[in-house]
Amino acid sequence: MPTPPTSVPALDRSRLDFYRGLLRQMLVIRRFEEKAAEAYALGKIGGFCHLYIGQEAVAVGSIAALRHDDYLMCSYREHGHALARGMSSRTVMAELFGKATGCSRGKGGSMHIFDASKGFLGGHAIVGGHIPLVTGAAFAIKYRAGDQVAVAYYGEAAVNNGAFHEALNMAALWKLPAIYLCENNRYGMGTALERASAIYDIAQRACSYDMIAETVDGMDVLAVYEATARAVKRAREGHLPTLLEVRTYRFMGHSMSDPIHGHYRTREEVDEQKKKDPIPALFHRLEAAGLMTQADYDALDAHVLAEVDAAVKFADESPEPDADQLYADVYSA
Amino acid sequence: MPELTYLEALRQGMWEEMARDERVFILGEDVGIYGGAFKVTEGFFEKFGASRVIDTPISEAAIVGAAAGAAHMGLRPVAEMQFIDFISCAYDMLTNYVATARYRAGLSTPIVVRGPSGGFVRGGPFHSQMPEAAFFHTPGLKLVAPATVRDAKGLIKAAIRDDDPVIYLEHKFLYRRIKENIPEGEDIITPIGKARIAREGKDLTIVTYSAMVWKSLEAAEQIEKEDGASVEVIDLRTLLPMDDAAIIASVKKTNRALVVHEDTRTGGIAGEIIARINEQAFEWLDAPVMRVTAHDTPIPYAPTLEDFVLPQAQDVVKAARWLLAY
How far apart are CA B190 and CA B242, in angstroms? Predict the structure, then answer.
């Protein structure tokens, strides 16, 4: 299995807007998730809510490498992907609040954010099951001789599910334009990778399918962008699937009902990982290159916070869904 | 008029839909070069090519999952389960992903998952089941089960054109055992959600579907001849959504009802049908609603055992006589 070396390119001064855009998107996700945690604590958000804090570079870097007509499907930790794909923080927050203005009109909730018009085919709340659907989306692209790409996002725990194996085998067999992007945050809820998987390098799983694989630092948004861009090129130009293992870390618990550290990981481990926080990491690179100042960053952050505050206000003030909508969309009209 | 078997009618229906709509494609285990385990898709690979008749690995979850993903993108896949028993491997896909896609995400999933169901062929526990009860209580899915040659064709065509996911249960015992004249060139579409009166009668209603329609008709003939009573047989054709109106209209006419299905008894859909009759026609009933079903065991291989476990015409006759005498 060829594993190209991970390379982090030097900053290109002419791409400042691009870098700022990545930073801004990561900040939007961070602040959005912080507000979601607050709202959850206040009882405004119910059920099961999985935050993306710590993993922002993965969605932001990879989605930046996609075209607007590409497709993606996610697991249940998908608020970040939705925002990175351009969904408004209002419609996503309103869905978390279970309001009629949410993207699923309150029927899906945190784990089922979607916007088909953006090729964002949604969050899926059973581990691994959506991976075959991405294979199907890639099949449809090839069937129509299109040049789009379909991307599956899933955690490292999903690779132990049969659906993963079935889907990757098919994609390699049929040479489909798909990217299987594994967000390896090291824990399937409270079970460490090493306690669930017989091999620890997820990328090695690609050997079974003679599929190209790459391992990339998921705390470096530019590295994620570059690796995804390589996979996109293979998919778009050669109809070749890629298994992309992106090594990341979640700073929060598995869900809002799970403490940040506890039985399965130590405070020291979490603190150590937080030193690699992708948001300051990018800012400090931009700052060191003279492309951004602390004042720029603070202004950006203030702007983002205002946007997210507005989203919370919008969600809070939106109407509840009507019971007369209960049966809508069970079947086609 | 050409006489077709049930299997040929199903094949012809798929063939016509493949020819009229490029979005339709077939995928499944050995559906291509081999032509399907029961030869349902024989000739398709040669006619429509490898791009539209897809031999898959033995990966039922991914067959249904990939079909669903392709359907979200606007294609109209027909996925074959080599035996419908194997649909259990794709249960997660169908009940969680496919059935809820429109509700949670506004995604259309116009897939057909079809395969040979049912017993009477000595298939043993993994190749003889009726799986409808496992999917019947999943809102978002549709379930059809043709009993006749005409409906084998009409329902597969309707299923492929439907914008919702349809599980199409064909009965393997009927594949080559029943024949019917099907006019060439007639665009036969059996509307989903509509039952049919397979036999008119006034003293007792039998509600049934799939191969049990034939056992019930046999029983009805015998009762008419030997007892002089007139039995109506309702062939449901679609199980989900169920045609309550057809059932209730018949029960209000005959005042007695018997539900017959090949699936096992406990949790079988006969219980639901009986509940609906009670809810909607209790005042019209002159007798309790009864059911004839398979015994609550796995389907055994040995012919004597399988014939005992599965409902036979004489079981229907016995139950019908009890009801008529009530």
Answer: 14
Closest Cβ opposite residue A137 in set B54, B70, B142? B70
Nearest to B66 among A136, A162, A329 (CB): A136
Contact between B57 and A169 using a beta-carbon 8 Å cutoff:
yes
Q: How far is B102 from chain A (nearest CA, A)?
A: 6
Q: CA–CA separation, B169 vs B263, rounded Å?
A: 12
Rg (CA), chain A: 19
Angle at CA of residue B257, ends B254 and B262, nearest 5°:
140
* Identity of the residue numbered A133: L
Among B64, B69, B102, the residue with its CB nearest the CB of A137 is B69
Q: Which domains does chain A have, with CATH numbers?
A: 13-317 (3.40.50.970)
- Mutation target to probe the A interface, by most A beta carbons within 10 A, among B93, B103, B109 is B103
- Of all residues in chain A, the one with the smallest CA distance to B52 is A143
Q: Look up B127 and say whether it is catalytic.
A: yes
CA–CA dist A235, B108 (Å, integer): 25
DSSP letter string, A197-221: -S-S-GGGGGGGGT-EEEEEETT-H
- The fold of B3-181 is Rossmann fold (3.40.50)
Q: Which residues of B touch A161 (CB under 8 A)?
A: none
Would you list which residues of chain B are within 8 Å, Cβ to Cβ, of chain A?
25, 51, 54, 56-57, 59, 61-62, 64-75, 77, 92-93, 96-97, 102-108, 139-140, 142, 162-164, 241
**The domain over range B196-324 is classified in CATH as 3.40.50.920:** yes
CB-based contact B70 A169, cutoff 8 Å: no
- The model's pTM is 0.94
> Cβ–Cβ of B75/A140 closer than 8 Å?
yes
ipTM: 0.91
Chain B residue numbers touching A148 (CB-CB < 8 A): none
Say if residues A251 and A186 touch (Cβ distance below 8 Å). Answer: no
Residues of chain B with CATH 3.40.50.970: 3-181
For residue A131, which residues of chain B lie inside 8 Å, CB to CB?
A: 65
Maximum distance among all alpha carbons in chain A?
57
Catalytic, out of B127, B171, B261, B295: B127
pLDDT tens digit at each of 333 positions of chain A: 344 445 566 899 999 999 999 999 999 999 999 999 999 999 999 999 999 999 999 999 999 999 999 999 999 999 999 999 999 999 999 999 999 999 999 999 999 999 999 999 999 999 999 999 999 999 999 999 999 999 999 999 999 999 999 999 999 999 999 999 999 999 999 999 999 999 999 999 999 999 999 999 999 999 999 999 999 999 999 999 999 999 999 999 999 888 888 789 999 999 999 999 999 999 999 999 999 999 999 999 999 999 999 999 999 999 999 999 899 999 998
Find out whether B154 and B168 touch, Cβ atoms under 8 Å: no
Q: For residue B53, with 0-12 CB atoms within 10 Å meaning exposed, 13-18 middle and 19 or more buried, which class applies?
A: buried
A193 in contact with B at a CB cutoff of 8 Å? no
> Distance between CA A125 and CA A104 in Å, rounded?
14
Q: How far is A251 from chain B (nearest CA, A)?
A: 28
The CATH 3.40.50.920 domain(s) of chain B lie at: 196-324
- Phi, psi at B259, each rounded to 5°: -105, 130
Say yes or no for a CB contact (<8 Å) between A104 and B104. Answer: yes
